[in-house]
Amino acid sequence: MRRVLPFLLLTTAALAHEFWLAPAGYRVAVGAAVPLRLLVGENFAGESWPRPTRRVQRFVRLGPAGASDSTDLRPALLTDSLAPVLHCPSRGTHLVALVSRPAFIELPAAQFTAYLRAEGLDYALRQRQEADEATTKPGREAYRRYAKALVFATRGAAPEVLENAADTAFRRVLGLPLELVPEQNPFRLRAGAALTVRVLRQGQPVPGALVQVWDASPVPAAKNAPAPPPVHFTSRTNAQGRVLLRLPGAGPYLLATVRIEPAPGALASRADWLSSWASLTFGGPAGSVKGYYPQSAK
Predict the structure, then answer these.
(1) For the chain, what percent of residues have pLDDT higher than 70?
(2) Which of 185, 170, 248 has its CA nearest to residue 215?
(3) Residue pair 36/57 in contact by the 8 Å Cβ criterion
(4) Are 180 and 209 in contact, with CB atoms under 8 Å apart?
(5) Burial grade of 192 (CB within 10 A; 0-12, 13-18, 19 or more)
(6) CA Rg, the chain, in Å?
(7) What whole-number distance in Å separates Cα of residue 153 and Cα of residue 31?
(8) Is the dihedral of CA 220, 158, 28, 162 positive or negative?
(9) Residue 26: what are its φ and ψ, rounded to 5°?
(10) Longest dimension (CA), the chain
(11) pTM of the full predicted structure?
């Protein structure tokens, strides 16, 4: 949640913060052991997600070499729940995806209404207002996370010429209840080029979705000066579920969106609403040796 009212900070911490996958590098050496953190926080600054092994339903790497190029990452999570290790065994773009089981939260009516406003969840807000519940009925919500990250693997820090036609994992549609899917490979774009990203619900476009974007590309700063905060802006998807972005630098970038709907009957005893939180992290164009992991790779 962004610019949250002070009284909301504690009560909505478990729900309204962004959740994302943060590899130690987005441009990595083929076969390198890359720590991958699961983070929750605000403004692209986060802390480790607590108790991930209890919450994770699916955690997988999907590579550019087709159906056989995949890894179940749940065993790595059991080995190290704070920073499970990711290996990318082939050149090209790898997609990492995590799906969580539902969790539950209940907020007082006024705080739930303020949270809906802050997140742009107009449908639920309107339904509660029309039912005269906005100031009287607590918000009982189930929420689930759908986080994806793109990692680009090469055999050295210098750029490689790879076959575009074979490198398509970045745009793979997983059919999730909510997901962000880029239509171009952000690692192959030139600085300042356009990137279109679709918001999909079970493979179908979601028009009017609010998409939050953070750009943490390095910027020149005075010696010993603190790093500036990431650039942040929002956009809404068009009728085809697309947003258009410009990638000025190497990133990393974080995109996030949320959708809310009435809870299904299976959850009715504990929740009136079901929200889906999707995120996508990736590096951008203009990669450099400095941004390559590990630094010592040849």
Answers:
(1) 87
(2) 248
(3) no
(4) no
(5) exposed
(6) 19
(7) 8
(8) positive
(9) -100, -15
(10) 64
(11) 0.89
Neighbours of 135 (CB within 10 A): 11
pLDDT one-digit tens code per residue, 223-259: 677 778 899 999 999 999 999 999 998 899 999 999 9
Closest CA to 143 of 293, 10, 275, 242: 275
Q: Alpha-carbon distance 2 to 258, whole Å? A: 13
Amino acid at 124: A
The structure tokens 């600054």 sit at 45
Residue 66 — pLDDT band, cuts 50, 70, 90? confident
DSSP run (H or E) holding 75: helix 74-79
pLDDT of 164 reads 63
* H/E segment holding residue 278: strand 273-282
The amino acid at 156: G
Q: How far is CA 63 from CA 94, 102, 155, 228, in A?
A: 5, 27, 15, 34
Residue type, 61: R
Alpha carbons 1 and 18: distance in angstroms, whole number: 7
Domain boundaries, the chain: 6-293
- Burial label, 58 (beta-carbon count in 10 A; 0-12, 13-18, 19+): middle
Cα separation, 113 vs 127, whole angstroms = 11
pLDDT of residue 2 exceeding 70: no
Q: Which two tokens stand for residue 185?
A: 């490979």
- Altogether, the residues listed in the chain come to a count of 298
Round to whole Å and give the CA distance between 205 and 237.
9
